[in-house]
């Protein structure tokens, strides 16, 4: 097959993608990435690396301008539209020249197709960023990290090339010139706090499976009495996991407790009957309502904290646990090698914001043992290709 045939084949795949299994889809994407790296010159690769943050900035500006809301409304009426038709649908006094500059990015990012000069057609991806989509909140929150990321080189030049290990004295405080922890600072920023709360409801990983889809809940988490606490969701956000859990196991006996900070609790809408909300800081003595539960669930909590502070969280959980209680930790586990760039980026986000880290299975085992737990099993859903795992631990005997 000559190069012309290869190009024609790739175009055919792009225009009419076949139905693929998840492993096939990921293998195909990895092949494209390998091909791109081999074909690029060092200069082209360098430009791709250093210009990458510009796309997220353009995307956030478009979200803020409600550009995607306007394009969605237009697309419902016609397949193609002009720049001026788009501007006319947008809120407030919008400069057409600015919208044009934003659209240059968005067309190159395959959110829109350029039919001609200043003429566009919306592509499916553009609908993912309307105001109603949680992905728009994800863009708002994650793009706010750019300031901290940009400060990392000077942070390390000034403080030495050591991984930060204190959540109250790390890159976040350096970049924002604040003594506040990231979460405390976030509470002073209503827009970003709201975006963060919404983002945390998004599913993690490449599978719709929930932790309770892969864990034998009915056999492992049975309680002796309906009055017993079945599950405490520590740092459970707005209750999305507990709501899904209750929906999947409506007849399972035992109370469900959501434990969260006041700023998050205040934003929670009405929860289903049977879910009790406790406003609490996980770094303080656990509240009586959480004592003696059958299981304590922490999802995406420990990766927010370096060992120094994460050990305090687990010490407080231990204080509330009964001898036969179970600790369930849902996290993204880094592989020991060949770490995908997405996971490497997630690790940098943890480092920048919280002086924390994404951990390998070995690091979690060592950390849990040091905190007085025994890791008894690592649960993985069938067909799961990413690093999402459920760690089951018990108190060390």
UniProtKB/TrEMBL annotation:
Signal peptide: none annotated. Residues 53-131 form the O-methyltransferase dimerisation domain. One of its GO terms (molecular function) is protein dimerization activity. Pfam families: Dimerisation, Methyltransf_2. PROSITE patterns: SAM_OMT_II. It comes from the Eukaryota. Residues 230-374 form the O-methyltransferase C-terminal domain. The active site is at residue 303. Keywords: Methyltransferase, S-adenosyl-L-methionine, Transferase. One of its GO terms (biological process) is methylation. PANTHER family: O-METHYLTRANSFERASE (AFU_ORTHOLOGUE AFUA_2G17820)-RELATED, PUTATIVE (AFU_ORTHOLOGUE AFUA_4G14580)-RELATED. This is S-adenosyl-L-methionine-dependent methyltransferase. It comes from Amylocarpus encephaloides.
């Amino acid at each position: 097959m000559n190069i012309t045939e290869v190009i024609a084949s790739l175009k055919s795949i792009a225009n009419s993608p076949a139905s693929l299994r998840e492993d096939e889809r990921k293998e195909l994407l990895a092949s494209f990435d390998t091909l791109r790296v081999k074909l690029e010159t060092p200069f082209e690769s360098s430009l791709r690396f250093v210009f990458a943050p510009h796309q997220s900035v353009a995307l956030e500006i478009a979200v803020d301008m409600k550009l995607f809301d306007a394009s969605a409304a237009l697309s419902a009426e016609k397949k193609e539209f002009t720049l001026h038709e788009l501007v006319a649908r947008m809120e407030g006094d919008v400069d057409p020249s600015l919208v044009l500059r934003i659209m240059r990015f968005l067309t190159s990012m395959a959110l829109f197709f350029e039919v001609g000069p200043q003429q566009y057609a919306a592509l499916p991806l553009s609908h993912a960023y309307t105001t109603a989509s949680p992905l728009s909140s994800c863009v708002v929150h994650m793009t706010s990290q750019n300031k901290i990321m940009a400060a990392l080189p000077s942070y390390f030049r000034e403080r030495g090339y050591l991984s930060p290990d204190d959540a109250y004295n790390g890159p976040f405080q350096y970049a924002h010139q604040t003594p506040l922890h990231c979460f405390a600072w976030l509470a002073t920023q209503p827009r970003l706090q709201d975006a963060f709360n919404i983002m945390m409801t998004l599913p993690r990983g490449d599978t719709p499976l929930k932790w309770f889809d892969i864990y034998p809940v009915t056999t492992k988490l049975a309680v002796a009495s309906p009055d017993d606490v079945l599950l405490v969701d520590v740092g459970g956000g707005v209750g999305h996991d507990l709501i899904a859990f209750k929906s999947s196991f409506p007849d399972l006996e035992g109370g469900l407790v959501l434990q969260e900070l006041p700023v998050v609790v205040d934003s929670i809408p009405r929860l289903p009957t049977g879910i009790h909300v406790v406003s609490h800081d996980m770094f303080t003595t656990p509240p009586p309502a959480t004592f003696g539960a059958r299981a304590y669930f922490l999802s995406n909590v420990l990766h927010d904290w370096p060992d120094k502070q994460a050990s305090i969280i687990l010490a407080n959980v231990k204080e509330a646990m009964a001898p036969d209680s179970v600790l369930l930790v849902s996290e993204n586990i880094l592989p020991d090698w060949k770490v995908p760039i997405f996971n490497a980026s997630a690790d940098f986000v943890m480092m920048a914001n919280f002086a924390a880290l994404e951990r390998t299975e070995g690091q979690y085992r060592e950390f849990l043992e040091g905190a007085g737990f025994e890791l008894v099993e690592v649960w993985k859903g069938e067909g799961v290709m990413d690093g999402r795992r459920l760690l089951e631990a018990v108190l060390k005997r």
